[in-house]
Amino acid sequence: MALLRRVIGDALRARRQGQRRTLREVSTAANVSLGYLSEIERGQKEASSELLASICEALGSQLSELLREASDSLARTERADGVLVEAPLGDRQLSEGALAGSPVAPVGGEVPHARTGPPTPAALAAPAPAGLAPAEPDAAQRSLTDGQVSVSVRRDGPLRTILHAVRTRRPDQSVTRR
Questions:
Q1: Alpha carbon 51 to its chain's center
Q2: pLDDT tens digits, residue range 117-162?
Q3: 130 φ/ψ angles, rounded to the nearest 5 degrees
Q4: Which of 6, 35, 37, 120 could form an SS bridge with 43, CB 3.0 to 4.6 Å?
Q5: Which one of 2.40.160.20, 1.10.260.40, 3.40.50.150, 3.30.1490.20 gives the CATH number of domain 4-80?
Q6: CA distance 36 to 30
């Protein structure tokens, strides 16, 4: 579940950074302290409608545009909550090298791996595997495994999602470069 203050903060930060403006520039123009604006952008503080209007004016946009963007983002997040399903742990495991830079943190040495065949209805209804944990406790994470491809999706916020796909190769297959 996404919090409105985080969604609004992400939208404000995206607008400010899209204009290549600093926190100091916008905070001065909006007549708000730099620290408070930073907390609003990080979703740590809820700003009043008057303050949001002042920040929007400093960014050259309308409050209604910001709220519409936040509303659309929340709607996408709510729709996406039921799209992916957790994949059960497979019978094979990925090497640790394949997980380098992965948003999936192995827990207890168990790492998901591709399994053969499409997921069964029982597997789709199964509870989340104990072998995966988000790298950060606040992040929402889903994994899906189908055939030789394993996909992990980690949502850090409504405007930041990381997709990590791993394609496994059987030992009897060779890699041909073209």
A1: 27
A2: 444 444 444 444 444 444 444 456 666 666 677 777 777 776 777 7
A3: -80, -5
A4: 6
A5: 1.10.260.40
A6: 11
